[in-house]
């Protein structure tokens, strides 16, 4: 008896080829220059295949970014808040320095005028903020973080400098950048009756 090809596997292979092709093109030529036609040609599929799964190139690239963020910049929980923040923010900085950074930059720019990009970017950011706040809430319960700290503001204070320097390219970003940022941040976030972070 001959084995029939699994259409689900074939579809998944095509889907991954499309996502990878879109990300590679974005890193090579920039978001604005990427077209659905170019993605289809690079992935070896018809344009209609892409539109069957996604409404636009932004939607394809958002799927790529969701996958990359989960793989490379998830939020750890070792019981040491400072170490966990350093691990996560350093991983995020490395992500920004990779091809995924070019994709994310393009999506952030596109989000200013493209509703699909704006909705997707907002959803990814909200997910990341929820994960950060969950970790920060736990730290408040173990007295690693002031109980009266506004967690939305804490997230902005921690991640804002990295986004600002990376997006606006106002300064070089050495490997120790987030270590220096967090040392400054924790001066204000530490509980008042505990010693300074080392």
TrEMBL record:
Key words of the record: DNA-binding, Transcription, Transcription regulation
Origin: domain of life: Bacteria
Pfam families: TetR_C_11, TetR_N
DNA-binding region coordinates: 35-54
SUPFAM superfamilies documented for this protein: Homeodomain-like (SSF46689), Tetracyclin repressor-like, C-terminal domain (SSF48498)
Record-annotated HTH tetR-type domain positions: 12-72
Gene3D superfamilies the record matches: Homeodomain-like, Tetracycline Repressor, domain 2
Signal peptide: none
The keyword Protease is annotated on this UniProt entry: no
PANTHER family recorded: HTH-TYPE TRANSCRIPTIONAL REGULATOR RUTR, TETR-FAMILY TRANSCRIPTIONAL REGULATOR
Protein known as: TetR/AcrR family transcriptional regulator
Originating species: Hamadaea flava
